[in-house]
Amino acid sequence: MTPRAFNKTFLRKLRQENGNVESSLVLIPLLILFLIAVELIVATNLRNSDFALAQSDASSRAISGIVTSSDHVIELSSPDSFTHMKLLITRRKHSLPQLVPGLVALLGGNAVVEVNGAAVMENLN
Question: Where are the domains of the chain?
Answer without folding.
Answer: 22-121
